[in-house]
Amino acid sequence: DQQVKQNSPSLSVQEGRISILNCDYTNSMFDYFLWYKKYPAEGPTFLISISSIKDKNEDGRFTVFLNKSAKHLSLHIVPSQPGDSAVYFCAASREGAQKLVFGQGTRLTINP
Amino acid sequence: DTAVSQTPKYLVTQMGNDKSIKCEQNLGHDTMYWYKQDSKKFLKIMFSYNNKELIINETVPNRFSPKSPDKAHLNLHINSLELGDSAVYFCASSRRATNEKLFFGSGTQLSVL
Description:
The complex is a heterodimer.
Chain A: E1 4-5, E2 10-14, E3 19-25, E4 32-38, E5 45-51, E6 56-59, E7 62-67, E8 72-77, E9 86-93, E10 101-102, E11 106-111
Parallel strand pairs in A: 2-11
Antiparallel strand pairs in A: 1-3, 3-8, 4-5, 4-9, 6-7, 7-8, 9-10, 9-11
Chain B: E1 4-7, E2 10-13, E3 19-25, E4 31-37, E5 43-50, E6 53-57, E7 64-70, E8 73-78, E9 87-94, E10 103-104, E11 108-112
């Protein structure tokens, strides 16, 4: 029973364009959402988060959007750069649960 | 200085052996975790410790035994290794136990032959 799903295993985007990564969740109790970025042979690194009281959070080139009614969040990267090529994981948690539940990741490739 | 460090990075061993993975964090965090990334690439929590106390044990076989000698260390010992244990194991830490971002180590690639 996978509560967090990233249905696109891979995405290829031209450098300079917008990258949009999507994530769906099933547990309506989730109230905190995060995106992680992972390079090969390294651990995931935190990118950006959003609380369920907001519907948007922005940090430089990265913006996360949350649609609670659709149980959907997305990560926008603009403009995309070659260094953004990595696997992106979305994760969710709920207050008191003491753990993050991760999606299976989307491999983003930025083409020059 | 690496914030969360785990050793070894690669571990190749035979079925039936016992092995350990060590993890240390220098962030002063209260909570530490072990996550497993399986062949389907999902990152799934195995254990969580808060101030040396076990708070999550996510239906992991008894062959896996975590040990937290202090708040900065969380080791994972695996007895009688099986083929299905082959995976990447990540250690992580967070400032507190709930709704906090995790800081991950670089992972241990375990291959059981």
